[in-house]
Structure formats: C-alpha cells, structure tokens
Amino acid sequence: MSLSSILSADAIATAIKDCQAPDSFCPKKFFQLCGLAKKSPQDVKKVFGILDNDGSDYIEEEELKFFLQRFCSAARVLTDKETKAFLNAADDDSDGRIGVEEFQAMVLS
Fold first, then answer.
1. Among 5, 46, 76, 87, fewest CB within 10 Å belongs to which?
2. Which long-range contacts (C-beta less than 8 Å, at least 24 apart) are formed by 16-20?
3. Does residue 104 contact residue 45 with C-beta atoms inside 8 Å?
C-alpha cells in the first residue's frame, strides 16, 4: 500500500512544498495540508503502518527524520530540532517513540 492510495498526490505535494525550508515543518499543519487530518481512524492507522518503516509498531526518532521522504522521495530530511519537536509533541507516554494510538491522537486532534 502507498500513501497515494489514501491521500491525493496534489495534497501531498502542497504539504511538502509548505515545509521545504529547514525548521519550517509543523506536524499539525502538515497533516491538515496533506488531508490526513480529515481521514478516518482506520486510514490514519494505515498511514502509520506505512511510516513504521521497520514494522516495530512504533515510529522511532530515526524513522521520523525521513518522515517527509515517505510522502515524497525528493523531500528533505527533517532537522534534528524538527525531529525532536515532532517526537515530543506525539509521544504522550515519554517512551521515546510514537505508537499508533499516539499518532492517531496527534493527527485527528
């Protein structure tokens, strides 16, 4: 399954373009622009599965660095500052990784 089977290519392109500059990535805004915030919890869970590159049922800091590239291979890597801010914003139980429930809560809030 690919992200373009859940989200429109145009919406993904718009979201990627919005955060091209280093340190301009905002997860909430990205989820709004790419259309993920309007999707069902089931679709958000499917996207989580795609983003969980190693199949661990968690998105770890190393996977977050390449978050934008999962949406568009030509996108930039997140900066360390953006990666840590993203992790801190979603990691409700402070275990250093984002579980599917934490991801859904962040996307759909």
1. 5
2. 16/68, 16/71, 16/72, 16/75, 19/68, 20/76
3. yes
Residue 41 half-sphere exposure toward CB, CA atoms < 13 A: 6
pLDDT digits (tens, 9 = 90+) for 11-39: 999 999 999 999 999 999 999 999 999 99
Pair of tokens at residue 86? 């993203």
Task: Summarize pLDDT for 43-70 with one digit per residue, the tens.
Answer: 999 999 999 999 999 999 999 999 999 9
Provide the number of structural domains found in the chain: 1
Full residue range of the structural domain in which residue 78 is found: 3-108
Instruction: Give the integer Cα–Cα distance in Å for 27 and 33.
Output: 10
Q: Counting Cβ atoms within 10 Å, is residue 1 exposed (0-12), middle (13-18) or buried (19+)?
A: exposed
